[in-house]
Design brief:
Elements (H helix, E strand, L loop, with lengths): L8 E6 L14 E5 L4 H10 L18 H8 L19 E4 L6 E4 L5 H8 L12
Parallel strand pairs: 1-3
Antiparallel strand pairs: 1-2, 3-4
């Protein structure tokens, strides 16, 4: 996390009991991310941490523009913050750190080679699909 944040990496960890937010059914986990996007960082500086979800419907590719998110989510979202295209143009890599080995859940903006370089772990569990 130190090497890749802010950036396109999401880490799934066990939620601590002190996390009092109602996040719905999460199986006791929480996904953490620090984006590398000026508008998102400015928003977070004003609000503090936010509980949000990916900008896509389950099984569909994550949206990287407000227009793509609006297409998938429509009126289910009351406000879209549009600050242009995602600089990277792809979703974040999601790594599940809740098990005995790290597991890539979704390939994205951080390559497996970069994850191996940073962690020193030669192989990550393979993912079984997308988020």
């Amino acid at each position: 996390m130190e090497a890749l944040w802010p950036g396109p990496l999401t880490i799934i960890v066990h939620a601590q009991p002190s996390l009092a937010w109602d996040l719905g059914e999460t199986a006791g986990t929480v996904a953490l991310r620090v984006p590398d996007h000026a508008a998102a960082l400015a928003l977070l500086a004003r609000t503090g941490p936010l509980a949000v979800t990916s900008a896509n419907r389950t099984g569909l590719v994550a949206a990287t523009t407000a227009e793509a998110a609006r297409y998938q989510l429509g009126d289910a979202v009351s406000l879209y913050l549009d600050s242009g295209d995602s600089p990277l143009g792809k979703a974040s890599t999601i790594v599940d750190a809740t098990g005995p080995v790290l597991r890539v859940v979704r390939d994205g903006g951080v390559s497996r080679d970069r994850l191996i370089e940073i962690t020193g772990i030669e192989a990550f569990d393979t993912h079984e699909g997308t988020e």
